[in-house]
Amino acid sequence: MIELYLKTNEVKKINLISEIDYKAEDIFTLRIIDSTENELIEISDKFDIDMSIFNQREAIEISSHYLKSLDQLSFNFSIPNYNSDTLFKEEEVFLIIKNDVVFYFLSSNIDDNFINLTKTRYDFTSINFNSHLEHFVFQIGIISDYYADLTEFISKRVKQFYGNILTSKDFRSNELDLIMILNFNNLLIKESISNFQRILHLLIQNKFEEKTITSRINLELDDIAVISDHIQFNFDRLDDLKENINSKIELEQNNIFRTLTIITVCISLPTLIAGIYGMNFKNIPELGWRFGYPTAIGLMIISFIFALVYFKMKKWIK
Predict the structure, then answer these.
(1) Which of 36, 43, 74, 81 is nearest to 57 (CA)?
(2) DSSP notation for 218-263
(3) pLDDT tens digits, 209-257
(4) Can you tell me the distance from the alpha carbon of 222 to that of 141, in angstroms, rounded to the nearest whole number?
(5) CA 190 to chain centre
């Protein structure tokens, strides 16, 4: 699907590149959702765009994700795709600015999240943009808000989980799995927002004719810095959760070992007495004693009770 944001502040949706009957000077932005190789070729031919940025997906260096020429600016970054309680999935976003038009290439998964965000907070039809850069910076703000939403989601889950762990006396193995999921998702957000932040710093180095563009990008960088702090708070909370769970596991293990120790001692004393009188020596005086058997049984019972009383005094038994 293709969306065109025209300079008349209208939004047009079409299905094929060939259906675009507008010139570059009539368009603010053009969004291509789930683009195919053929569509990339068609867009490149129609608007004379260099698509080499699409060959830099696997590169690690930030310079490979930010390409600038005399008449074109291209960059790409990955955004975590929100997916309920499971692991987030990274989705690639590509942006190209040429001939006063901003071209967006993104997947339908990310686009759906953006659409839901813009529907609840923004109304495009009520905003008048004076240039493609104003529209571009506005979209940057939406991306920042999306990062904030993801971070808030993780924060809520962590706080809720934190409360459950503190009030729960039992430990389940899937709780550690949930911590790993939350930690991984938080890590994806941190990695993505770090790359996005570096790209914005590179954008500021451009001398935009509209001075307000640079100041607005700086404002978004300030917002992203605040989001980064909250991401670190999430890491700290998750570390505390892991320590708390590990402490509960150790305490549970200690209780198990304590119980085994009590059982072992309580059984070992009667066993010792039974072992002594079970030896097959002829000169054991108690063997010929009339009350030898009940006395041995009594000693075993007393030794068992003595061990229980001892551990009760040591407060090993509640």
Answers:
(1) 74
(2) HHHHHHHHHHHHHHHHHHHHHHHHHHHHHHHHHHHHHHHHHHHHHH
(3) 667 788 888 888 999 999 999 999 988 888 888 887 777 778 888 888 8
(4) 11
(5) 9
Q: Over the stretch 132-168, which tens digit does the pLDDT of each residue have?
A: 888 888 888 888 888 888 888 888 888 888 777 777 7
Greater confidence, 171 or 183?
183
CATH superfamily placement of domain 1-112: CorA soluble domain-like (3.30.460.20)
Tell me yes or no: is domain 251-313 CATH 1.10.730.10.
no
Strand partners, 27: 6
Beta bridge mates, 31: 3, 104
Global pTM reads 0.74
The position carrying tokens 């901003």 is 102
| Residue 111 CA: distances (Å) to CA of 2, 31, 264, 268 | 11, 10, 64, 70
Q: Enumerate the domain spans of the chain.
A: 1-112, 251-313
Whether 251-313 and 1-112 are alike in CATH topology: the answer is: no
